[in-house]
# Entry
Amino acid sequence: MICGQHFQIRRTSLMKTEYASVVLESLKEAGVTFVALLPDDQIHDVQKMIKEDPSFISVGVANEGEGVATCAGAWLGGRKPALIIADSGLLVATWPLASLAVSYGIPILVLIAHRGEIGDRANWRFITYKFTTEPLLDTLQIPYVTLRKPEDAKEVITGAQLSASLWQHPVAVLMSGEILRD
Amino acid sequence: MTRYECLQILAPLLNERDLVVTALGWVAGEWHSVRPAESNLYQINMGMCAPLCLGLALTLPHRRVIGLESDGSTLMYLGNLTTLGNNRPPNLTLIVFDNQCYQATGGLPTATAGATNLAGIASCAGIEHAHEVRTAQEFERQARAALERQGLSYIVAKIEVAGRRMSTGMDGKESKYRFVRYIEKSEGIKIIDSAAKRTADLRDS
# Structure
């Protein structure tokens, strides 16, 4: 194994494992079989499940921008791709989202662990994303839907993927609130 | 050695099923003039050609994928070399046309005009078959070897600052549709969904 050991580190807040399973199953239901990801503590468990699940081709990227381009290549080859990142990663990914995904019309499902909602117990660092994530998606002309309750995951994620495919356009799902809480 | 000479050497080495993705810049129009095939995808913007090729090569492991990259584009997402070096799709060949400058935007130097060696970086990033070539003969030898081997290949072609400003005659969306329709036809698959399945169809499937 090239990537070596997996280190378990203490995290202050994270998605419950059962919710991670719900997200994983929803991605499968949506037909997603290719995932580019950059690790984030909030969605660590679902990212780890995807890496270990042979029904996905998963690519760990060094930068979310290359993740967008890798997903685009996967779609061109016939797979349904998802990019699974944090708010910070959305900022990094804006260039390829604008100049490749939106410009060419490439359906990529962008799953974002969204922090910075009022009352979500995130610290001072995360208010940045209250100011950036939603306005950025609006500016990029990437439609998005917010997923808060685990029981809505399947409908929201399959719906977002379906619209991405039919519109040939990236669509984002902001995971926030209960689905991210420990 | 010019990029156009290299492209003329490369084209006859490929078959019509080989998938070729070009970076932005003059390489797109030049390649279109040499090999105007449906299996080409053109003008992928700065930094994105190589990672796009990675996704394509992993998704279609039975097809050869060739990326025509540039030094400026590669330098923008240098971290992608580590992603390539750890995934290593055996059906992917990346050719970096390294003219050591940002030619299409006026010609100011890139880092490879200075101390930076891209083939060396690629090698240290985990790409086993990374080579720098400086003559047309070397280019042809490495291109043939890359296309024949099962293994990720990376060729950095040091080229003159020369080129022809030619157009592919199509925008990104047309290039996309043309390429995707070709993949659908040649793979016997459906990629572009035009209508949602009805709930009853989903239940039956």
